[in-house]
Design a protein that fits this description.
By secondary structure, the chain is an alpha/beta fold. It has helices spanning 55-59, 95-110, 134-153, 169-178, 194-204, 248-251, 260-273, 299-306, 326-332, 351-357, 363-376, 395-408, 435-458; strands spanning 29-34, 37-42, 45-51, 68-69, 86-91, 114-115, 124-129, 158-163, 184-186, 207-210, 218-219, 230-234, 236-237, 256-257, 277-281, 313-317, 341-343, 381-388, 412-417, 464-472, 479-484, 489-493, 502-510, 515-519.
Length: 532
Amino acid sequence: MTQGNRGPANPKPDTGKDYSKYFDFSGAKIVKEENGKTTYRIKGRDITINAMPSYKDEKKRGKEEIRVHYEKAVPEELRTLGRGKKYLIYTYGCQMNEHDTEVMRGLFEEMGFAPTTERTEADVILLNTCAVRENAEDKVFGELGHLKSLKLEKPELILGVCGCMSQEAAVVGRIMQKHAYVDLIFGTHNIHRLPHLLQEAYFGKEMVVEVWSKEGDIIENLPKKREGLRAWVNIMYGCDKFCTYCIVPYTRGKERSRLPEDVIAEVRELARQGFKEITLLGQNVNAYGKDFTDRNYRFADLMDDIRKIDIPRVRFTTSHPRDFDDRLIEVLAKGGNLVEHIHLPVQSGSSEILKRMSRKYSREHFLDLVRRIREAIPNVVLTTDIIVGFPGETEEQFEETLSLVREAKFASAFTFIYSPREGTPAAEMEDNVPYEVKQKRLERLNALIAELSLESNLQLKGQTVEVLVEGVSKNNPNVLSGRTRSNKLIHFEGPQEWIGQFVKVKVTAPQTWYIRGEAADVPVQAALSHGA
């Protein structure tokens, strides 16, 4: 095993833990206990527990160093496991989940599986889940209900649940109790174990549960199956901020950064393959490098190095205002392939609510950061995330959010009604804002965002902008769809041969959520196709 110089062995399951407390089955019987695994029989189904999630363990942030593994995730003996079989992955949630799906696609195809979009053809179906909001979980459990009939028709189908929901003890317990036809449950820290877990599910003929609560390692050299013109590049994992409403520090673990040489090598390879745009990913991307003990190298340094690589566009998400320093602003102001779009989640415009959220910055701090960014990058386009109806939010505090949005002049925003997540501190707070009030506040906020979005788009009228053509419009095959450097959606007429190319487009009719334009020139390069 080749390792970096950063820490401990793989986490071991806590074999002394009474896993039966996670599911209240009076009829559960222990079938066997060996090698740290326990097999239960529940309602006629054998369930092997390799490791179970624990909120208590997920909250721990040890001082142990992080180990980097470079070995292959698919051993030789499992490279034919999927021969003649097909897989299908349904992905919910954020870009990190999308990236995890790319890794799982790569693992499946190294095992010999072929992709399919038809669930009736699939031999393995995975639901890669999100736990950030309650409606995301509702969608997954609804989908599991739909898949039950398919599983009954096709008993040999392997049905799995992975991703952030799997890191929640209550969710795993519910699946075992209400959806015993699921074959496989694994978490965000052990995606690289998919080949071995599939092998167990196939040959053991029992539900396999392996969810590590204590992560610590970084697994390099994982295969990735990327599609399209843009690539996600994960530069770090986890989050240490512990905002009171957020489940992510529990489901994704502590902050741990990939080594810069590994990130830069991946970006260079993507440039060689012809990708036109990359997005650097992290739950708190601008905290990158803070966990390094052997070097002084931070996110701004990484961006400055990637700026020199020949790839047309570089984005990043998601950043935390507390970690957005002047050095990063200075590097982003250099431009080039570093685009002038910054996603900067504020969550609330009230200092009191921000304090209750444990965001660790004030309204004044945030607006000062916006001012410094706009001074350095005059053409910057800012977008954000906002939660309305947080426990205790008054009308005056909501008005503070509206006034901050106006002052910051966000071009768009992801807006949400507060949703309590079990295991977070906010879930214990009195949720005393009536739902009808939350809905009306969301409507008012969205109306303001629409007003500001149109105002931002109107500033481009008559200008010629660079557009990366991503595909055709859903409503008209003669209309192409793409994004500007500042991530604005633009539609214009042109041949499908332009997909994958940069086109100069003159803005003719700005709308609220997208822009209409017309091609100002004809690209000379042929479109590139990618595979990774």
